[in-house]
Every structure is written in structure tokens, then in C-alpha cells.
Request: fold
Amino acid sequence: MKNNSVIVGYFRKLSPIFEKLVDKAFKEKICILSAREFFKETSKFMRLPKGDMKTDIGAGHFPNMGMDKIIIINWPEIKKIIFVEPGTMEYGFAHEIGHNLTWKKRPKCAKHCSASGQQFFITCAYFEILADYEGLRILKQSRRASSFFEKPIFRGREMA
Reply:
């Protein structure tokens, strides 16, 4: 799979923090795809619920389909959020990188394969907490690596 160059280019221009986050994703060999590309590719192997296309941003781990580490971006939905609450997107993107890293460190957390070889997901108790922890750690590193040492652009509602 190839990264979606339009989304990657756009994210790099959003903020110095986002540029560092994209670099981190590439360093970890995480592929950034649009939701449309993801659904097109996965439809060759299995059916996904149509409601999943409305998700703004998500992480995926489908090694049996050649998509070991991916971040899925629903471009039309993200465009509605990114200008209003860019900090939410910085955090969300770091959180999804965190999911990809926690799958690597704890492969049994959130993933279970049935005897038929089909994948289905069971979230372990720490699934989201681990991604939050990793995401915040990545944001902290990205902020320190930034030449401006700027704070994430947290503005918006419900950020407590």
C-alpha cells in the first residue's frame, strides 16, 4: 500500500507538530490512507459495515491483507474538524499512531483470530488507555523536537 500523498502533504502543512507526527508515522512504517482507499482494498477480502465510513480517523492492523500498520483518514469529515479544532486532530493522529505502536508491543490486545483465519476485534481493558498514553508521549516528543517548542494547538470543547 502507498500513502495518500494529498492527505500527507496537507497534514505536513498544518503545523510543525503535525509535520513531526507525520514523520513519526513514516519512521514507524505506518501507512496513511483515505477511508475510500481503505474500503476499496478491504472489500477484496471482507465486508465492513457501511457505518465505518463515517469514522473521522482510525487505526487498522490487517497483516493478512498486506496492511500491517495503517491510519485511515476520512477526508471529508476531517476537513470539517481540522480548521475548528486543530489540536483535537493533532491529539487524534498521535492517538492512532499510538494504537499502531501498542499493537506491535502487545499483539494480543484488541486482536483475535478465529480458527477460520478471519480477524475480529476484542478490545482488552487497556486498549484505548495504551493508545492515549503512547499518543501523549509522541506529542511530547514532537513538541520537544520542534524548533519552536510550541504547545499543541489545543483549543476546542471538552479537552479536559
Observations:
- Helices lie at 5-14, 16-27, 35-42, 75-82, 86-105, 127-145.
